[in-house]
Amino acid sequence: MDTIDPKAYDTVLSINPYENTFYEGYGTQLALQRDPAFGKKQFAISYLNTNDFITAQIAVSKNIPEEDLAFVIETKIYEELALDLAIEYSIDFVEISNEGDEKERLFHVFIVDPIVLDETFANVISKIQYIDQIIPVPLLLKSLYVYELVEGYGAHCYIYFQENDAFFTLYNNQEFIYTKSLKYSFVEMHERFCELLGEQVDFEEFKSLLSNEGLGTQNEEYQKYLIKLFGELFLHINDVLTYAKRAYDIDAIEEIFIGSQLGAIVGLDEYCQTYLGFEAKAFDFSYGFSTDAYVDQIHQLMQIYTQCDEALRYNSNFSIYHRPPPFFQRQSGKLLTVVAASLVAAFAYPVTYWTLSYAESVHKTMLEKTYKETHIVKLTREKTINLKLAQKAEAQKLLDAENQLFAERKATLTKIHEVKVGYPMKGSIVASLSSDLNRFKVGLSDILYKQNEKQKVFTFSLIASKDKEITDLLEFLTKNRTKHFHYNIESIFFDEKDNVYRGDLKVVLK
């Protein structure tokens, strides 16, 4: 298994070989490259669609030495899958956790026909010469768990539609367990849609219809056949999901993520709810890249894959387009080394000075290498920080919404409390004062209540046949009822019309 550390390079070039699209990543920047070229400081990574490889699980004895493991797996694969012995397939594998079995080790094995590699990457190689890593597309999804873009340890299903393929991938407890190519790529969807419609529709127009309007299109005829098309599609997905759950003993699916290289397709979530019984989530994650427009999720997955620690990701490489070894590891380089040694022996004195100069050059190179590694670590951490800040912002939005809801409910409860407590309190004041009015033979013609932020005031309009009755009442209240109230009468006057004394008693709640 060929592995190269992508962190040793300044930039990462992600490649879609099926549509010849290229994106260059540097730190948090991600930009489309319309005319890519080979670069010594550039790490090139690409992928294989699920319809371009065969996958299987195989068990081998734990007694097999590591140096013989690849040979044993390859031999068993040819036997168990009855592969054509005349074809030298490219075979790679990743180990499955199998701690409960003391005798055998389990592996996911990926098999690729070399002709597929030649045909798929011929155009790419003509532009950039070398590809450092080619990985099966379902293994890229491991990066989502490494960067905690997807959390939880249940069964997670990923469905993604591309122009030349559509894949169904299942992860359980954050580990890959199953993948299958669906027979509904955009090309196949287009063919089926035209067949149902009974006329030919331009492929680019069909893709524009899906990306811009989806199943909510205003063209009733188009909508009718899109509904039928996606009904067939989700019945197919349901069959695949049912098989996977049964084959891998999965009781329930925790999450389903659906997306496409065109972006979100309106109406897919409703079909997922109807046919699969799940509320789908968008296959569209915040990777921390700065981009001007929507970027295919597979490109972004390849970019973050290169930044994952080697121990945390799946390492698989089908590339047959490797860089040449360093010059001094080639035969011509070794010959030059011998010649140089002879010259050094013949010209020891001048070579001594050359050696000192070379030593300084080596020291400089080591410092540059240290700087480069430190710089890459810095960029990686900056991207992680940006990702966490984005997640924090989303969490803050949820917190603000909850705080607003809390404030609204608190205000409601406060109002209810005021009604329940305040109104009975007003009644008790009137009842208490009525008793005192009767005691001093003082009548009541009107009651007013006024409340502001500072105080609550009752105004009682009193009537008595003698002014002394009102003054005796006020004297009693100011002596015996001042714990919670303050009393005041500005004046007592005689009403000649009604032949009674009147006065306005103000009761202020303390």
Question: How would you describe this protein?
Answer:
By secondary structure, the chain is α+β, with helices and mostly antiparallel strands. Among the domains are: 1-149 and 288-323, Nucleotidyltransferase, domain 5 (2-Layer Sandwich); 440-509, Alpha-Beta Plaits (2-Layer Sandwich). The chain is built from twelve helices and 17 strands. The chain has helices spanning 66-80, 114-128, 137-140, 142-146, 186-197, 203-212, 220-247, 268-276, 297-305, 331-346, 348-439, 467-480; strands at residues 11-16, 21-26, 29-32, 42-48, 54-61, 90-96, 104-112, 133-136, 155-161, 166-172, 175-182, 255-260, 281-282, 443-451, 456-464, 485-495, 500-509. The strands form four sheets. The chain has a five-stranded mixed sheet. The chain has a five-stranded mixed sheet with strand order 11-10-9-12-13, covered by helices on one side. Helix 5 (186-197) crosses helix 7 and helix 10 crosses helix 11 (348-439). The protein is elongated and about 135 Å long. The relative contact order is 0.09. The mean pLDDT is 87.
Class inferred from helices and paired strands: alpha+beta
| Name given to the CATH architecture of one domain | 2-Layer Sandwich
Low-confidence stretches: none
N/C terminus separation: 85 Å
State which percent range the strand residues make up: 15-25%
Mean pLDDT: 87
Assembly context of the chains: single chain
Largest sheet, in brief, is: 5 strands, mixed
Portion of residues within helices: 40-55%
Strand order of the largest sheet: 3-2-1-4-8
Radius of gyration: 40 Å
* Number of discrete helical segments: 12
Shape: elongated
CATH class of one domain: Alpha Beta
CATH fold field value of one domain:
Nucleotidyltransferase, domain 5
Record field, number of beta strands? 17
Order of helices and strands: EEEEEHEEHEHHEEEHHHEHEHHHEEHEE
